[in-house]
Amino acid sequence: MWHCGHLPAPFHEPLGGAPPASAREPPGLPRFLQVQRKRCGHCPQSQLGSSYRCVHDPAADAFNLSSALANSCNYFFVALSLRLSPEALAHWYSVFGFGSAVEVDAKSTSAGRVSVPLDARGKALAAIGEQNVLATPAQVLLAYSFIATGGEAFGLWTRRSSGDSPTPLRRIRFKRSTIDALTGGLVECVQSGTCQTAAVPGIRVAGKTGTATALDGSGATHAWFVGFAPAGDPEVALVVFLERGTGAHSAAPLAGEILRHYFAAKGREKTPR
Q1: CA distance 40 to 251
Q2: Which terminus of the chain is more exposed, N or C, with fewer CB under 10 A?
Q3: Is the pTM higher than 0.85?
Q4: CATH number of domain containing 80
Q5: What is the mean pLDDT of the chain?
Q6: What's the domain count of the chain?
Q7: In this model, does residue 35 exceed pLDDT 60?
Q8: Cβ of 218: how many Cβ atoms within 10 Å?
């Protein structure tokens, strides 16, 4: 699924959306970054009396924003959610387009769902995209395009003539330091975190994985990857959603294949020594 105004057919949206899991973490961070940028913390064994799945080494050093994004530390983002009101958390979902229909080929897709509970546990689960939030791939793609471009999002089309220029749908005003912090964490995720299989030799890729429990009661998981490249001067963004799998082992490798093909076709992928 390509951005910059173009999506190849066939384009498939999960009916009604799906839990975005940790792929939705960056859109909730701008408010926190305005208040306290350098917060660090260790990943505990439990929080609010519950266990939240993390894939990193439990003995990892204290996390800051970049390393928490890179290692997909749910506890870090649960802790941040407890510092925000439900209204603030819901506001940032809305700012990034979650809960609103996205047009593809000028036709509206599902609006998904955003419902942030007032209680701490419900708010925490909403913050890590496991409950109370349903998102479509188009919504996740547009949310990350705001980060990629520094505040702009473009319309999505399955077919576009080569002479057309993408038109921004809307703009969000961000501090440059906020964009740099978010982008830095997403780059670190590809360079040393859960997204390493999405790397492209010679290209600075930014991205995030997500693994969400399916809503059908099967116990299976959905897989997400969303990202853009080159970070800092992006020309392409993509989202991969698989109805079965994990972000790190299913979606990220597929995204890496797509990105390597894209840049190889442009003669820009470097062969590693």
Answers
A1: 29
A2: C
A3: no
A4: 3.40.710.10
A5: 78
A6: 1
A7: no
A8: 9
